[in-house]
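dumping this here before i forget
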Amino acid sequence: MIRLPRIEVPPVDYGPEEAAMAQYRAEGTARALALGNRGPLLFDSAGNPDPAILEAYRRHGFYVFEGVLGQAELDEIESDVIDMLERAPVHKGADVDRQGRPALGVGCRAATLSWVRPLSDPLGGTAFANGRHPVKMVEPKAPAGAPEHVVQLILGSLQFSDACLRLYGHPDLLRVAAAIHGADFTPFNEAVWIKHPRLGGSVAWHQDGWTHWASPDLDGDTHGFNFMAQLYGCDATNGLWVVPGSHRLGKVDIAALVAAAGSERLPDAVPLVCAPGDVAICNRQAVHGSFANTGDRPRVTINFGFHRRTSVLGVTSGGVHNPVSVYDAERIRERSRLIALAIDARRQRFPAEPPFRYAPFAGAEAACRWTPAARAGLKDYNLLDLGI
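structure:
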């Protein structure tokens, strides 16, 4: 049962594009389910992810881990997401929520809430994020009675949700991060994506990375990856789409791909098809995007990413997720401490679950205990995000 508050509006579709979209969704779903990059998260006797999983991830650029999260944890995440939405500003730009309380994110210096006009594409064809969204997606007509804006993204989410923080410390997912990026892997950033039914906007096709495309050491893992935990599941209507294998192609001319396709329906792309509790991993170099959610189901994705340390150490970056700065060893360690805090928060909530041992803080666990003071210290932590 979905408890997320729903904004009631009439059914919507893509108008003249709807028949083509319906066919595209059906064909994309069939292609996605035939790839062979989904299944339970399995480990060998040494505690390493099944090599077949890593091979499929590196071949396609994404993988769906099925059934990672149980219902009890999903319920806790759902409660926190509902709380965040109830605490959101009563409208874009407001300082109070619908009950007159100081709204979520008020007083924060870092970015927190991102709004979108219903069913719109605010990024495509703009200079935002170094112009990485070169082509605008089709924008269906907003339904009657739709609000002017809806919340689509909550940034720095770990300061607002203990349940999301505990998920961030999930031992099996952190073992995957270590297998891909090494024992000294570092954070990227964390967010909650919310695609409201009949209202959620699109995110134009793009690749996430921007710093290392010209590097002679560029490979398929240079710009890191994101985990995408699904609260309610996702499908071809409300979920992310990925072009398999595109993470290995370097900087892709997305405008040329769209021009060759004759529309934004890229013929090789496939949707993430997930059940509640599934967690997808998606390479940040893969061409990916999402269409407006004209369907009746919400999509809530708990997003958190990681890098290998050599991709961030000594890099001058920022400007997209936070101010431009140098990612020196001290900055990386300060931001990475959040992983250790999350591990301890999860240990306290799930004491029977063996915790992950994060190598950069091995022996320093006592200084990384999850306490009320540690929670208060998370305000604006995302100013230290390691975006590349």
